[in-house]
Specification:
Blueprint: E1 3-5, E2 8-9, H1 18-24, E3 26-28, E4 35-37, H2 50-54, E5 60-63, E6 68-71, H3 81-85, E7 91-93, E8 101-103
Antiparallel strand pairs: 1-2, 3-8, 4-7, 5-6
């Protein structure tokens, strides 16, 4: 199977699924998180936990037992959805250092 054309497998005409596209991406996680929370005390009061619900890479997880948000920055797709949906503007976000982070193969 030869990949090479955006949106499909070369010669097959079959479009790639989202999962197949994501699988082809390369991630080089930085040693330091590029994501954070400005004020962790606001998270327990956030009713919707929008960052948890909307992140396509499941980077954010809420623990009811611990009463806190955990961030697995290694999973981040760098889409920035988390900071846009946070009703408290509580997410700190920056691009990873040069050469680190996600490298999209299909844009």
């Amino acid at each position: 199977m030869t990949r090479g054309e955006p949106g499909g497998i070369r010669g097959s005409g079959k479009p790639l699924t989202v999962e197949e596209r994501l699988y082809a991406d390369e991630t080089r996680p930085d040693a330091v998180s590029h994501l954070g929370v400005s004020d962790p005390s606001r998270c327990p009061g956030c009713a919707g936990k929008e960052c948890v619900r909307t992140c396509p890479a499941e980077t954010y997880r809420w623990s009811d037992e611990e009463g806190r948000l955990t961030i697995r920055f290694e999973n981040c797709l760098e889409c920035g959805t988390c900071r846009l949906v946070c009703p408290h503007a509580n997410i700190t976000w920056r691009y990873p250092m040069g050469g680190m982070g996600i490298c999209y193969r299909y844009g």
